[in-house]
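Hi V.,

Quick status before I head out on leave. The structure for the redesign project is tokenized and pasted below; the design run finished overnight.
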């Protein structure tokens, strides 16, 4: 089932689409004027034709300016619904002004200009399909300007012929466009719901992947992540002969913490230990929970004395300050540095044996295997 969508978002998208398409279409308007000028060139007095062209040019520039301003400010529907209303009204007035300025005694010219007005209404209809009130404004302004103009011509009787026909045409166009507009809005709604669902799914997937790779108690990478990181380190070491070191860390006498202070304190100590160790590592190193109170650290690009120094630093960081109120604890560390031919099992076994030797030797120490 699609995610619920906010109607305001749908309106905002529709509004932005409407403004963008409107701007593009306005740029082609001069082609329409050129057609009108060509038709009227010899039949209409030059001053009337130039007057109409001057009017549409001014109206056109204002429309372009308004739309550029609206787009510049981010097409916010709440702020720009009214200024945008001015655009179709201006357009309607400019085209409707063909009546008073250009229509007159020549019946063929009148019919041609009437056809052009129908064309203008038809071309503009899809632009406003998602904001039909704008289209009603355009049609209303066009029709009223034309009517006022025609009534003032020497032959107002023509108005009785032209205006009802045009009104019927505009009404039919508006009716059908309204239906299409509702379907387009539904499409936008579905598209938005789809996008939201996709985002939710990818977020859920990312959260699941994170969960699957993370130890729930300490937030450290878990055994699965360690296996992956170790495989990558081994591949890098094989390819570039770049050694790295694996440390096996095991808290000393941790069972006693659980037994004397309870499991909750034991858990808190494990978390504090994880933070303490992580705080000592470079971003390129990795500390993972291997299981229980055992942890593994991968020291990338580190071997020999440097690895022993790093392990000592970790051991001291744990031993030097309690890991919780009154919980002084130490850690035993086994070191295994990669040698050619080592695989994950061999490396882990060597580090484990070294850590076991550290336990045997009295704990709270570092031993290299
Ligand atoms: N609170 C808590 N305890 C855990 C968790 N995982 C393992 N343990 C405990 O860790 C303890 C490990 O005990 P042992 O294996 O005997 O080791 P130890 O007491 O640390 O002794 P040495 O390793 O020999 O120094 C057990 O009591 C486990 O129950 C955990 O997630 N939370």
């Amino acid at each position: 089932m699609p995610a619920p969508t906010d109607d305001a978002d749908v309106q905002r998208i529709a509004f932005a689409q409407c403004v963008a398409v409107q701007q593009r279409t306005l740029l082609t308007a001069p082609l329409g004027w050129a057609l009108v000028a060509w038709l009227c060139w010899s039949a209409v007095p030059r001053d009337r034709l130039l007057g109409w062209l001057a009017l549409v040019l001014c109206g056109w520039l204002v429309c372009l300016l308004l739309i550029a301003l609206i787009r510049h400010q981010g097409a916010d529907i709440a702020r720009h619904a009214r200024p945008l209303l001015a655009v179709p009204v201006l357009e309607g007035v400019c085209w409707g002004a063909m009546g008073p300025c250009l229509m007159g005694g020549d019946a063929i010219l009148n019919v041609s200009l009437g056809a052009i007005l129908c064309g203008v209404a038809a071309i503009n209809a899809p632009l406003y399909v998602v904001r039909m009130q704008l289209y009603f404004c355009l049609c209303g302004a066009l029709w009223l300007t034309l009517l006022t103009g025609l009534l003032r011509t020497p032959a107002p009787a023509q108005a009785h012929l032209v205006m009802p026909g045009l009104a019927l045409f505009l009404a039919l166009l508006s009716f059908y466009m309204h239906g299409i507009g509702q379907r387009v809005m539904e499409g936008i709604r579905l598209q938005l719901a789809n996008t939201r669902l996709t985002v939710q799914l990818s977020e859920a997937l990312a959260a699941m992947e994170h969960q699957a790779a993370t130890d729930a108690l300490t937030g450290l990478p878990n055994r699965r992540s360690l296996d992956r990181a170790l495989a990558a380190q081994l591949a890098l070491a094989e390819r570039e002969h770049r050694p790295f070191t694996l440390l096996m860390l095991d808290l000393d006498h941790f069972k006693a913490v659980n037994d004397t202070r309870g499991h909750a304190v034991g858990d808190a100590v494990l978390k504090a230990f994880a933070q303490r160790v992580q705080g000592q590592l470079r971003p390129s190193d990795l500390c993972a929970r291997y299981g229980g109170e055992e942890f593994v650290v991968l020291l990338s690009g580190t071997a020999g004395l440097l690895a022993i120094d790093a392990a000592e630093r970790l051991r001291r960081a744990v031993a030097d300050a309690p890991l919780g109120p009154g919980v002084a604890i130490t850690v035993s560390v086994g070191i295994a540095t990669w040698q050619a031919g080592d695989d994950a099992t061999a490396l882990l076994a060597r580090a484990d044996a070294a850590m076991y030797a550290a336990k045997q030797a009295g704990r709270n120490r570092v031993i290299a295997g």
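Above is the designed sequence. The domain at 223-368 is CATH 3.30.70.270 (Alpha-Beta Plaits).

G. will cover questions while I'm gone.

Best,
W.
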